[in-house]
């Protein structure tokens, strides 16, 4: 008793025998064979297979009418899976005498030229989970559906994840049903959606509400008196949608709210007091990138045990910095807050780990109490109007890793206590009014010889744009993980320390375990005298070297070409002399070069990267330097030698050209002959290879024709073209 008959990929051709209908106990029949010549005209024998559950007839040319085909299929009450792809079917019957295939779960009618409307009986297949109508020339709005209204029905269960495939949908209304469970993430694929209505469903158990819109402004609008059916949300996350201008009042009914993230949602009016009253159990409050222009409450008590974080960055707030006890991270950058830092910030906000008040309007000095926040790891007060001296950071701040005080008006020196911070790896002091003697600022940094930061950490020292004096201290050579040294635009004097190679030598850091970071030295715009130390050429992973606008003399080190990773080199506006070292042509990563206004001489190299530096400003201000990039002719200095060398070079170039042309023609001929006989000779000599080759060519031709036919049908459907 046969239950399973699989004749797929058997390369049969001709008419399918009707005697298969005698196998009444058959459960599975598969006669699909790609690009086969199988055909069937009388399909009445199919109705005898009343036990059939799986029927695969893809690529079979069915010449009977569609009514006859589906009338026979309708006699199979057990049918679960039906595949009729590329069967040359013409019309889907609009109705069926009786619908007996309600058990069907998979239906594939793709790549048939139905040229008809979507029949209503398709929507009565209650067990259908997969429906493939690709390239079937069907008319209707389902494939380009933009408005879907299923409101006030009895739909239950989950919102199907396949809803996200309706890429043109701009309105989805599921109001008044019995939907429940989790809203699928695929809804986020509806990039054109601007109206989503999920009201009056069974969302009582909703715990997390998240929505964002990256492209089009999505509006989430509810009335101010709306009371949601769910009351136990613990997190609401709405980003880049239109919620404001008022704060969503429906959140006040949530009894377990812990995380409130309303980023870039257009809120501009005052935040309601009930939200501040919930601060005792808030873990995260993010209202950044809005237009809030009100005063923040002076005091709030964030007593949650899970390290509460508050972010009001990128707003238009008024008033001074608030005191919010219990907060572990406070971000108020670009919020237009003014006034002074609270004098008691260290006592009242002692739990702070991260504090970002950059790009605000703060003034006066940094309070000493800030040094009492023992758990602080990140401090950014940059781009304000702070004055006074840098506070003395003591040994109690063991976790402080980043200090950014740049772009203020701080004066005085750099406290030597900086060296007592064991975890510090970024120090940014640029563009202030610091005027200390740098040679003594790091004299107590000897303990950093045993700084344990691991191989994936680095130390940055940025103090550009101040009025620091003195020489570059050799104590910097004892910072074993120094990666970025920027002391530009100061008044430093004294020669460059020979020991800098001990700091950066051979170091290539993996920043955040992903991006390789090369070292940087910028000592430009100072008064550094003397020669460039040869030891700098041992910094094998140096990426940027800027020594411009100093008082350097002597030659460029001959071994400078060993800096193979160097991408930017600026030695301009010094008194360097001698030739440009030939080794520099091996610096193949070099993309920026400035050697202007020195006293360099002789010929400019032309190999490798130097062939790309065609801007004369790269070398201008060197009267004895010559080359193709400059109008200066080297023969003006040595006319006889110049003429002889030019004649010799012209002759050598002519010989080289002849040799190169000869080898070119010879290699073309050898390659052509070899390739021709490898391919054609093997086909002539090997009969089986010859047959296989031509079979492959014919198969590719057939595949191309099928592909053209499929896509042509899709183009017809897309542009509404129909057959007459």
Automatic annotation (TrEMBL):
Keyword Signal: yes
Primary location group: membrane
Record localization: Cell membrane
Family: Belongs to the RLP family.
SMART domains noted in UniProt: LRR_SD22, LRR_TYP
Protein's recorded name: Receptor-like protein EIX2
Organism: Glycine soja (Wild soybean)
GO cellular component, as recorded: plasma membrane
Domain of life: Eukaryota
PANTHER family linked to this entry: LRR RECEPTOR-LIKE KINASE, LRR RECEPTOR-LIKE KINASE FAMILY PROTEIN
């Amino acid at each position: 008793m046969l239950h399973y008959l699989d004749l797929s990929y058997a390369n049969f051709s001709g008419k399918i025998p009707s005697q298969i209908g005698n196998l009444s106990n058959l459960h599975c029949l598969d006669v699909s064979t790609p690009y086969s010549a199988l055909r069937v005209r009388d399909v009445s024998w199919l109705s005898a297979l009343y036990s059939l559950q799986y029927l695969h007839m893809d690529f079979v040319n069915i010449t009977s009418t569609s009514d006859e085909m589906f009338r026979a299929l309708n006699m199979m009450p057990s049918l679960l899976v039906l595949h009729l792809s590329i069967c040359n079917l013409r019309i889907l019957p609009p109705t069926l005498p009786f619908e007996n295939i309600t058990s069907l779960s998979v239906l594939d009618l793709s790549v048939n030229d139905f040229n008809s409307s979507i029949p209503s009986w398709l929507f009565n297949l209650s067990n259908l989970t997969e429906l493939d109508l690709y390239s079937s020339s069907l008319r209707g709005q389902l494939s380009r559906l933009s408005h879907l209204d299923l409101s006030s029905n009895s739909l239950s269960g989950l919102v199907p994840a396949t809803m996200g495939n309706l890429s043109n949908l701009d309105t989805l209304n599921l109001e008044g049903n019995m939907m429940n469970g989790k809203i699928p993430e695929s809804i986020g694929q509806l990039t054109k959606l601007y109206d989503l209505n999920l009201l009056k469903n069974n969302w009582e158990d909703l715990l997390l509400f998240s929505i964002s819109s990256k492209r089009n402004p999505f509006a989430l609008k509810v009335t101010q008196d709306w009371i949601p059916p769910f009351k136990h949300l613990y997190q609401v996350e709405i980003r880049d949608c239109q919620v404001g201008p008022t704060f969503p009042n429906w959140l006040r009914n949530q009894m377990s709210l812990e995380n409130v993230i309303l980023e870039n949602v257009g809120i501009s009016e005052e935040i309601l007091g009930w939200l501040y009253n919930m601060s005792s159990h808030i873990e995260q409050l993010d209202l950044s990138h809005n237009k809030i222009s009100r005063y923040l409450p002076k005091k709030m008590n964030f007593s949650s045990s899970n390290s509460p974080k508050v972010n009001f960055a990128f707003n238009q707030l008024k008033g001074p910095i608030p005191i919010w006890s219990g907060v572990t991270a406070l971000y108020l950058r670009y919020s237009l807050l003014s006034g002074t830092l609270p004098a008691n910030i260290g006592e009242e906000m002692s739990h702070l780990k991260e504090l970002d008040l950059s790009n605000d309007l703060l003034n006066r000095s940094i309070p000493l109490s800030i040094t009492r926040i023992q758990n602080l790891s990140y401090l950014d007060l940059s781009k304000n109007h702070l004055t006074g001296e840098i506070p003395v950071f003591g040994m109690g701040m063991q976790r402080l890793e980043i200090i950014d005080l740049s772009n203020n008006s701080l004066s005085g020196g750099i406290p030597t206590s900086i060296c007592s911070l064991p975890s510090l790896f970024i120090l940014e002091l640029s563009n202030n009014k610091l005027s200390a003697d740098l040679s003594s600022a790091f004299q107590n940094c000897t303990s950093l010889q045993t700084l344990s930061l691991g191989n994936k950490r680095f130390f940055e020292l940025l103090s550009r744009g101040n009025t620091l004096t003195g020489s570059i201290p050799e104590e910097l050579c004892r910072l074993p993980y120094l990666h970025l040294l920027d002391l530009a635009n100061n008044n430093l004097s004294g020669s460059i320390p020979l020991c800098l190679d001990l700091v950066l030598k051979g170091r290539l850091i993996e920043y955040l375990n992903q991006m390789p970071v090369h070292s940087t030295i910028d000592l430009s715009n100072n008064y550094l005298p003397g020669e460039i130390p040869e030891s700098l050429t041992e910094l094998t992973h140096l990426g940027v070297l800027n020594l411009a606008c100093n008082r350097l003399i002597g030659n460029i080190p001959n071994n400078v070409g060993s800096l193979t990773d160097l991408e930017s080199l600026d030695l301009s506006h010094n008194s360097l002399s001698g030739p440009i070292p030939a080794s520099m042509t091996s610096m193949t990563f070099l993309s920026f070069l400035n050697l202007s206004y020195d006293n360099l001489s002789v010929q400019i190299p032309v190999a490798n990267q130097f062939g790309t530096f065609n801007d004369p400003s790269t070398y201008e201000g060197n009267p004895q330097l010559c080359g193709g990039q400059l109008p200066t002719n080297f023969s003006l200095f040595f006319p006889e030698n110049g003429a002889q060398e030019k004649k010799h070079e012209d002759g050598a170039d002519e010989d080289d050209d002849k040799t190169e042309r000869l080898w070119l023609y010879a290699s073309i001929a050898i390659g052509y002959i070899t390739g021709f006989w490898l391919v054609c000779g093997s086909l002539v000599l090997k009969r089986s290879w010859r047959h296989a080759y031509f079979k492959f060519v014919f198969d590719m031709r057939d595949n191309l024709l099928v592909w053209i036919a499929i896509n042509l049908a899709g183009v017809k459907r897309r542009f509404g073209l129909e057959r007459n």
